[in-house]
Amino acid sequence: MIALYIGTGLTILWGIAHLFPTRNVVAGFGEISADNKHIITMEWLVEGVALIFVGLLVAVVTYLDPANLVSQAVYTLAAIFLLALAIVSLLTGFKVNMVPFKLCPLIFGLSAVLIIFGAFL
Description:
mainly alpha
């Protein structure tokens, strides 16, 4: 069960880490249209909020009853979600020359593995 909480904590912390640099990330794109700035801002914030939500969801079902079928489904779907983000990040953000982008696949993948390990092994 400790692995579940570590995986969720890592997911939540990485989600929170997305929320603070949003303005700087958008500014890093230079002169782009207002619409594009809004789109980048929205997408950056949505990823952070989604990560926080998934982490909190896994933490809550773990606290309430980690062994029921709903909890097992939540663990499975959360891990699939995180692995999908890891793949997308590996194919896109990993190519960016900024360390935080290179960490995304590792953090998403590690979180997924910890959740699966804690839930099923």
